[in-house]
Amino acid sequence: MRIHVACDHAAFDLKQALVAHLEDQGLEVVDHGAKEYDAQDDYPNTCIPCAQAVLADEGSLGVVLGGSGNGEQMAANCVKGIRAALAWSLETAKLAREHNNAQVVAVGARMHETSQALAIIDAFIAEPFSEGERHQRRIDLMTQYEQEK
To answer: Where are the domains of the chain?
Structure first.
């Protein structure tokens, strides 16, 4: 499986640890940056291309990282067709996949120790979409609204 990752300065160290962690698991990682620490960088410049890449790369998933994960999730959700979820626990990460079929997870580096953040991301990646009728119906409603815009 291919995992696209992106971050801003607040999560630069976490992204470095995540890339190594995912590669150790045998996953293919595409790093959309930040490529170096810059305290003045702007998360939309990395998170939007990451989400675009996930959308174009069928079967892949994405991880966007920042201080809280909020802005990074919002940036990823600017990409039409992407469902990005902010996860702050194992349960929210799993439900984002199981119920919402989210393709991108956002995690806040300032909200979690590295090991906890990695566990949240692992839970997101491992959880399949349930394909439940009620969940798909809700996703279809969002897609319909999005296409009308």
So the answer is: 2-148
Q: Which helix (H) or strand (E) holds 65?
A: strand 61-66
98 is catalytic: no
Q: Looking at 4, 9, 32, 72, which residue is catalytic? A: 72
Residue 73 clears pLDDT 80, i.e. is over it: yes
21 is a catalytic site residue:
no
Q: How many CA atoms lie within 13 A of 24 on its CB side?
A: 8
Q: Could you tell me the pTM of the whole model?
A: 0.97
- Residue 123 neighbours by CB distance under 10 Å: 20
**Structure tokens of 147?**
């296409």
pLDDT exceeds 90 at position 149: no
Q: Does domain 2-148 correspond to CATH entry 3.40.1400.10?
A: yes
